[in-house]
Each structure stands twice: as C-alpha cells, then as structure tokens.
Amino acid sequence: MKRAIYPGSFDPVTNGHLDVVERARKLFDEVIVAVAHNDEKQPLFSLKERLNLLQQTVGKIDNVRIAQFDGLLVEFAVQQKANAVIRGLRAVSDFEFEFQMALMNRKLEGNVETIFLMPKEEYTYLSSRLVKEIARLGGDVSKFVPSPVASALGKKFKG
Ligand code: PNS
After folding, report:
1. Cα–ligand 1 centroid distance for 17 (angstroms)
2. Which CATH architecture has domain 3-124?
C-alpha cells in the first residue's frame, strides 16, 4: 500500500490544492490530506472549519482521506505508515523554503521522501493568502476556490 501525506494549513483550500490532490491520488493508493493545527499562523478559519471545507471538496474522493495533525509532520507520517510527503511547488519563490523543509524532514526521518508536484500553470499565482486578501477587500474569488470556500469567505467578511 503506497500512502502519501499532503500536509498544509489549507486556510482555506484553493483550486491549486485540489489540482495537487488530483495529481497525487493518481500516484498513490491513498493520499491523506493533513491539516496542521499551526496556531502560530493565526488562521482565518478554525481547524474545524478548514476540515469541514476539505470534507466538502475532496472528502468524497475514493482514495483520499482527511486528517488533522499536531506536532512533527514526519512523526505523523510514520504513525500513518506513509512513506511520502507531497508538497505543491508553484514557482521558484516557493523553492527555498520547501527545499529547506524537505531536507530537514529527511534528516528527522530518513524513510519519508518529499515529492514535489507542480499544479497547473494557471494556478502558479494562486495562494490562500491572496485569496483571503481579495475576499476581505470585496473581490470575486469564485474562480480561485471551490464554491463552498467562496461562500465561507463571503460569510467571514460580509457576515
Ligand atoms: O500550507 P503550509 O502553511 O505551507 O504548510 C506548512 C506545513 C503545515 C506543512 C509545515 O508547517 C509543517 O510541516 N508543520 C508541522 C510541524 C513540523 O513538522 N515542522 C518541522 C518542519 S521541517
């Protein structure tokens, strides 16, 4: 059984994340989309809301499971019997941080490989941070996120 973890803050999940999930699930028997607690980042959506939005968007895909984790990613990967971590790589600007994290994770746990997947070119400019900013300023985010996320953003900012 080849199992991979796709970790992230998913605050909120975007079409770029969905594209990466689709690519990953073709390579692995099971992909666990794992939401980090990440309190340091002060997310817009609570952990429960982020899990809920993922459930509505990727929750029904056959070989995709949604989970949450606290603590070290590699410990979670070992606990889940996953031997790969998937990360999306959009542009060179992502590379430095991702490279550092991948090598550090490998130092911590040599049996878990990081695999980078490039989302569709049209998503290279897309990020949860920008989507939140656009929504906060009243812009239309419907092209960038699945519809439950667009409504959730609307509710957050318009009440
Ligand atoms: O979507 P993000 O915010 O880029 O995801 C970052 C995430 C959650 C993958 C990263 O912060 C992480 O792995 N956190 C878990 C704690 C951990 O293992 N830290 C050591 C990394 S070398």
Report:
1. 15
2. 3-Layer(aba) Sandwich (3.40)
